[in-house]
Amino acid sequence: MTATRRQFVRSLGATAALASTQAITPRIAMSANETVRIACIGTGSRCRQLMEQVPHVPGLRIVQVCDLWDWALGEGKKLADPNATTTKHYQEVFDNKDVDAVLIATPDHWHVPLTLAACEAGKDVYVEKPLTHNLAEGEAVIAAQNENKRIVQVGQQQRSMTHLREARERYIESGVIGDIYQVRLWWDRSRYDQLAGPPLDLRVDPEQVDWKTWLGDAKPRPFDVQQFRQWRFYWDFGGGILTDLMVHLLDVVHWYLDLEMAETAVASGGSYFNNQGWDVPDTLNAAFTYKDRPLSVVFHGTFANGLHGAGIEFQGRHGTLYVDRGRYEFHPLDRDKAPEIKTIDDHPRGYEDTRPEQDRAHLQNWIDCVRSREKPHCPAEVGVWSAGTAHMGNLAYREERVYRRGG
């Protein structure tokens, strides 16, 4: 590992996670029937959704559970193998020779430090999105994946959704849609009454939380239940609408159009009605351009009105392709041709939930690649590109300027 990357990991408080690691021999391909033993780190609600799908993935077993909050640790244990061990110390996971791979679903600011430590310890990784918490982390996490020959799957599960893969092949790869110069995406939710009122009554016994470790490299502060339970909406731990929601949709745009990180970003919005103490805006609009590509990608999101839910429109020269998590629609510009529509379980336009079989498919792709050592649907570099573009949007908003890649 280079000196630069050592400094990077140390600055994020992960030095201890690397201290006991030795030179790793790259794992060879496993038998299709060989059990993959995993540990889950950060067993909050999203992690437990994924854990519920593990029994449906043949040859996958949860042998260890790790969380800094006693309650979440206990809830995670219920979904693990009956003989699974528990720990509040992530280093014990990386030292555990019975663990082949880890599933990381912590707050955003811990994604890269734990992924680096896992790769250095010879563990394959499934890590929730956004992969990075800032632009500086991208290079190090890609290097850790490649240098240690690890299988890293980022939890941008759209890439494993069957109907989205079908729509990509049918309309984008085939050229049916024609040249695309603009893509519109949105993710809106109705949370006005909740967010405009008094702070939520979130009850957590601070004695059950290792708060100092949870903070990581963030500035020390007394235990704050709002920040602990709503971490997505504080810059020290998350990135708000762009990294929590938009990044899923943006990754579909990158996938469909073979894009990497944006070249420029602009953004506007603000905290117009939120009374929960968030750092981040409750309403935000952002636009992105890409190097050597005549394309504009425009996003809007708000918590004030969720009528339209979440969706993407690819506007092509010959038609418009609409996709979301429950359907796709192709509307030809030629009005004599009927729209082509496919829905999953009759979900309406704007459907935003992840169905269990979609999580299962993404986990299955990861485990298939852990066995074969082939690239998964969403490796580290893909996660860096989508998260990095979201970070550019946040920087454009916070610095009130056009943000250009590279600063």
Task: Describe, in short, the structure shown.
The chain is of the alpha/beta class and 407 residues long. It has 14 helices and 15 strands.
Question: Please, could you describe this protein's structure?
Answer:
It is a single chain. The chain is of the alpha/beta class and 407 residues long. Helices cover 33% and strands 21% of the residues. It contains 14 helices and 15 strands. It has helices at 3-11, 15-19, 45-51, 70-77, 90-95, 111-120, 138-147, 162-173, 192-195, 211-215, 225-229, 240-257, 356-372, 380-399, and strands at residues 36-41, 60-66, 85-87, 101-104, 124-127, 152-154, 180-188, 264-270, 283-290, 293-302, 310-316, 319-324, 327-332, 340-343, 403-404. Strands 14-13-12-11-7-10-9-8-15 form a nine-stranded mixed beta sheet. Strands 3-2-1-4-5-6 form a six-stranded parallel beta sheet, sandwiched between helices. Helix 6 runs parallel beside helix 7 (138-147) and helix 12 packs across helix 14 (380-399). The radius of gyration is 21 Å and the shape is globular. The two termini are 26 Å apart. Mean pLDDT is 93; it is low at 1-24.
